[in-house]
Amino acid sequence: MIKNLDKAAKRLIKAAEQGERIILYGDADLDGVCSAIIMQETLKTLGGSVQKVYFPDREKDGYGITKKALRELKRFSPALLCVMDLGISNFKEIEKAKKDGFDVLLVDHHVVLNKLPKADIIVDPKQKGDKHPFKELAACGLTFRLAEEMLGKDISTALRKSLVELAAIGTTADMMPKEADNKDIVQEGLETLENSWRPGICAFFKLQELERFPNIESKLQKLISILNVRDVEEGCPASFRILTCDSEREATAIAERLLEIHKLRKQQTQKLLDKVRSSVAEQADCPIVFEGGEDFDYILLGTVSSVISQEQGKSAFVYRKMKGESVGSVRAPSGQDTVKAMKHCAQYAITYGGHPQASGFRIKNANLAKFKKCLIKYFKENCPA
C-alpha cells in the first residue's frame, strides 16, 4: 500500500458524503490535467461537490501552489484543497492555505527536498516511510490508485476503463518508466483507447493526422504531442477542455484547432533548436547546456531542452528571460540528477524541483550567471565526461 493512500481515500469520501466544498488544483501539463479529471469524475460518482478546478499559469505565476492562486481560491474557504502533480516543495504556500481555512491533501510524485510541507495528508511514494516498492508512478497513476481505493468494488467496468485511459495518457506524457505499476496502467489503458466512449478521445482518433500511424503506441504519442499544445481559455488548458467535453462535435473543433497550432509550433521549435545548437557548438567544453533569452517561447522550452540533452548527452537548462525573472525547463541524460544539482545551487533559485531527468526552475535574472557558474562547477565535479 502506498503510504497514506487509504487515509486520503477516506478523507475524500467523507468530503463527498458530507457535501464539503472541494477544490481540485492540478499542474497544467497532461499528468496534472489527467489527475484532475480522474479525481473530478471519481468524486462526482460518489456524489461529491467540486467547486473549482484550478490550473496555475507556470509562465506568469510560477510553478506549484502560487500566491495568486491562493488569493483567487480564498473565497471558497473553508474547503478541502486536493492538490495533484505539484506542491511537495510549496512549504510557505501550504501553510498559507491552511491559515486561509483549507484542509490540504497532496498527491505528488516529485522528489522530496529537505522536508515535507505541512499538508494534512501527503501521498508521495518518495516520502520517508513509504514502503511501496515502485516509486516512479506518475501523479495520474497515483490518482488512479486513489480512485480505485475510493470506489472499491463498486467501480463499474465502464468507469474503470475511462479512468485508466486517462492514467495511461498522463503516464506516457510524463515519460515515466514503463515498468511495474506504470506498465500495468499503460497496457490496460491502451486496450480500449481507440474505442473510448470519451468524446475528446474519439475526436482525436478520427483525425486524418492519426490514421497514418501504424499502431496504438505511435498514435498515442501523436495524440499527446497535440494535447500538449498550450491553448488556455478562462484558466483551463485545452487538454482539460477537450478531455471533459460532452460533445464530439465540440471536441472535434478543439482537436482541429490544436492540430493547426501544433503544426505552427513544430516550425517555431525547429528555429529555436537551430539557435541553441549554434550557441552550443561554441561551448563544446562546457559540461552542461545553459541557454535562454527573451525570445525563447516558454511553451517550447521542454521540447528544446529534451532534444538538446539527447543530442549533446548533457543536462540542458533552457529558459525564457522575462522582466526581472526567468523560468526554465531542464532535461538530462540517464544517470544525471538535475534536482540534486539545483539543490546544490538553491541559494540562487526562487524555486526548483521535479524529477532527476526532467525538472524546472524559476530564478531572478540577476542570479542567472551565478546559477550557471554553480551548476557548471557541480557537473564538473560530479558528472565528469
From TrEMBL:
<dbReference type="InterPro" id="IPR038763">
    <property type="entry name" value="DHH_sf"/>
</dbReference>
<dbReference type="InterPro" id="IPR051673">
    <property type="entry name" value="SSDNA_exonuclease_RecJ"/>
</dbReference>
<dbReference type="GO" id="GO:0004527">
    <property type="term" value="F:exonuclease activity"/>
</dbReference>
<protein>
    <recommendedName>
        <fullName>DDH domain-containing protein</fullName>
    </recommendedName>
</protein>
<dbReference type="InterPro" id="IPR001667">
    <property type="entry name" value="DDH_dom"/>
</dbReference>
<feature type="domain" description="DDH">
    <location>
        <begin position="21"/>
        <end position="171"/>
    </location>
</feature>
<dbReference type="Pfam" id="PF01368">
    <property type="entry name" value="DHH"/>
</dbReference>
